[in-house]
Amino acid sequence: MQSQERLRLVVRGAVQGVGFRPFVYRLAVELRVRGWVANSAGGVIIEVEGQADQLEVFRNRLERERPPNSSIYSLEEVHLDPVGYPDFQIATSTSGLKTTIILPDIATCPDCLAEVFDPANRRFRYPFTNCTNCGPRFSIILSLPYDRPNTTMRAFEMCEACRAEYEDPADRRFHAQPNACPKCGPSLQAWDRTGKPLASGEAGLQAVEQCLRAGQIAAVKGLGGFLLMLDARNQEAVDRLRRFKNREEKPFALMYGSPVEIAADLEVSGAERRLLGSPASPIVLLGRKRESAIAPGVAPGNPYLAAMLPYTPLHHLLLRDLAFPLVATSGNLKDEPICTDEGEAIDRLGSLADIFLVHNRPIARPVDDSVARIMHGREAILRRARGYAPLPVPAGCQLPTILALGGHLKSTVALSVSDQIFVSQHLGDLETEEALENFRHTSRDLVSLYDAEPEVIACDMHPSYLSTQEANKSGLRVLPVQHHYAHVLACMAEYALEPPVLGISWDGTGFGPDGTIWGGEFLEIQQQGFHRLAHLRPFRLPGGEAAVKEPRRSALGLLWEIHGGDLFVTPGSARCAPLEAFSGRELDLLKTALTRQINCPITSSAGRLFDAVASLVGIRQITSFEGQAAMELEFCASSADTDRLYPFCLIEPDERQPSWRLDWEGIVTGILSDLQHGVTRAVIGRSFHNTLCAMMRDTARKSGHSRVVLSGGCFQNRLLTETAIRVLTDDGFQVYWHQRIPPNDGGLAVGQLMAAAREIG
Ligand code: ZN
Ligand code: ZN
Ligand code: FE
Known about the structure:
Largest sheet: 11 strands, mixed
Bound molecules: zinc ion, fe (iii) ion
Number of strands: 31
Number of helices: 23
Strand content: 15-25%
Structural class: alpha/beta
């Protein structure tokens, strides 16, 4: 018999006062699931308990069979621990402070789509068609309350027909703030690369489509910013785009016209299909089918492709007219925010794009496309922006007003207002002045939208993160929070978990209070703070920061730890891939650096261990984007099916080392021996993943905790996450992993905020 699960669904949309709760009640009773449904200020909340397949049916039928006048703008699902509800009830509505929820941008609904392609409709081929069930929200709001004069639609006066719809309670466009039509709403223009108008409206759209058919590159103003679009089958155009974006190998996202077209090129499960077509319409990572027509340069050497469906009428028109998939990547240079303004786009993208497709509805703030993946059957958001931001995470209790500034990479900021945590859209890495300016602007924007006065600022402990420096300039009380502790608290917040739990916090880099670089941590989360129970055995990173881009340096660090100076003379290691990747002169310098410990910081980073293994097996020595080596190792390992393990041990704490250490030496020697015996990379990679998960299980056993929380960038790796869940669950542990908040540094702000709330509680 299957075990019981609890699913919480937060449904936002036209679901209040349309018979939604009685419908939910009848469905729950019919399917014999237990729990409750209630109205709240933040939407309809449903909790159901039952077997996994019952819950799946409930969830699907909820969407399919909802009352005729209802519609769902967003449906957030979170899997929680069962609490043993005896029956199903319609609960009295939850009260609490009425915090205004700003909705995210919602993908075009089927009704609007039908109108756009209906020649008899007055909105036939109108790219800005929307209704109360779909269209722009977060990307057009200037201030609350959400009324047209407070949006970027304020410059457009509704025509008589639109006004009538807007004022008719029976109409689908009743109080649809961005309501518009060809007569009164925003319009398109095609521009050349100098900003000279070429054609307007339908003719402009046709001109751009002509360019795309001819293999040219278009900069298209969309919902939250400009996208660079081009024929995804055209290798030459893809090469041009790569040179311009200074992006050698990082995969580009694709936009396909329909789910059927995606399924022709890519492997799509039922859960993935649902995710692709959800109101959020994120980019989803999908396995490639061999016979795809996509140019190899879109995702070189990558067995996965990142795909999404059109999410505005404009994108639907383009994709349907063209009938081939487009590369759709954000219009920016590396580490700069996505372009939102026409003039700026001409300046920044004019040397690449052959044509611009612009419109006159201003974008209030940059919002990138979101990225999500299915992990162990559940949605996991890896980049939280369009379609999700700024939906809150419910805190479950009143919080002091805190602003948390996040980390350095994949930056986001978070703000608590009463019992909700509002998380900003993904802002990217704080590597450029433009990115930093966008970060500052977003922090101010979030605070002013909710009219909040933060009492405290939370940030990372790293003194040189720009976000930390911003916190210190604020003049408010600053609470620095340890990086890996914040990761775990972010995941705990998703499940409303109370301590104690064991947190496994694995990523590339985070500031450790002992002056070393942490990243392979096992933290016991206590009522106040945490205890570092265990970590990966530390090793040196020759060249420090340089090791992030060069996995071969991490490999050298491991070998140095095992062999010391002999590593450079042992004949057996002469055929070792990381050693061969350096010149003799470089090796001399590295030997000196390691011997004298010059710029060779100590790390317990799991991310660097992945890099080192990718280097040892010859998958990658130098990377061109963050996490590339680990990603390639994951993909390679996913193709093997084995339960093999490498030998490993846990080293007991002593006076000098107060934490358990997970020793990887047996893994390294095992891999070197496997390589000599011709074992495939896939089998080696898979055995490596298996061993890490066995290490997690043994450490969890030692901890005495029954609940294990997985967080940190390493858990974007599906093979690692799913294997860890399986191994730990089989051993009787309750396992928690990220769902609505990213496991990577995009989740730090939420965790920092929770840490600060505990501290000032
Ligand atoms: Zn609609
Ligand atoms: Zn109109
Ligand atoms: Fe991290």
